[in-house]
Amino acid sequence: MCGGFTCSRNALTALNIIYIVVAFVLISVAVYGRASSKVTDLPIVGGIIACGVILFVVSIVGLVGALKHHQVMLFFYMLILFMLFIVQFAVACACLAVNTDQQKQLAETGWKSVPDSVRSDVQATFTCCGFYNSSSPNAVPDSPGNLGHPACNVKENKCCVHDKCDNCQPCFGKVEANINKAFKTCGTIGLVFSFTELVAIFVAWRYRNQSRGRLLETASTPIFSPYRMHHRTDYVM
User: What is residue 234's DSSP assignment?
Assistant: First the structure.
């Protein structure tokens, strides 16, 4: 019957295989989000990457522990998975809670911290000019209250035609969409799968306290059969 030793082992094995896949999904989405934003390092998304790596390692431990019914491995699996649940839940909520103003501050900080070579790459990738102001195709140096940018009228930037960049849009609008998508996607995936970790903890706890001998016991076995009398812990001869 389901809920027995074999069912718990199979369920725990399946959950850990799913977690391995989820770990790769978390890492891939977070890395894509950081790469697509170009100008800024997203620290919260970095937390999602860390959670994905830890989840992968813990899933391997849980998978081996489930196949071997290893008591010590299953104990540490439950302990680490519970701590991972807390961290992943907090980081996912933080990703979903980031508002437009905070995303703007992150983008500004990233633009200020990167060299002109990266800024030029961003302008060519997103076919934009400048961070907020695209009126000048020539290089604009950084100044107090103003974010400068390298020259926009280069061959790689397709929005500029014959040294004129009238069709170019500011880069912030395009980068902002990628940053917002990275936060929302990472936050949603992390939040949804964090709750499944509680299910894995319960299944691991149940499986850890089960014995292989219970596979021989069925619902049709008489109450006072030799098997039941032999395996009762409270039976006194």
Answer: T
Report how far residue 142's alpha carbon sits from residue 195's, in angstroms, rounded to the nearest whole number: 46
> Which pLDDT belongs to residue 221?
46
Phi first, then psi, for residue 3 (nearest 5°) are 105, -10
pLDDT digits (tens, 9 = 90+) for 145-179: 567 777 777 656 667 766 666 677 788 877 777 77
Residue 54's SS3 state is: helix
Q: Residue 55: what pLDDT? A: 85
pLDDT band at 237 (very low <50, low <70, confident <90, very high): very low
Contacts of 87 (CB under 8 A, 6+ apart): 47, 51
Instruction: Identify the burial level of 58 via C-beta atoms within 10 angstroms of its C-beta, where 0-12 means exposed, 13-18 middle and 19 or more buried.
Output: buried
pLDDT at position 235 is 42
Tell me which DSSP letter residue 132 carries. Answer: S
Interaxial angle between packed helices 43-68 and 71-97, expressed in degrees from 0 to 180 and rounded to the nearest 10: 160
235 CB-contact burial (10 Å; exposed 0-12 / middle 13-18 / buried 19+): exposed
d(CA 48, CA 27): 7
Q: State the Cα–Cα distance between residues 187 and 179, nearest whole angstrom.
A: 12
Ranges of H-type helices in 38-134:
43-68, 71-97, 100-113, 116-125
Per residue in 88-105, pLDDT (tens digit) is 888 888 888 888 888 788
Phi-psi region of 41 (alpha: psi -120 to 50; beta: other; left: phi over 0): beta
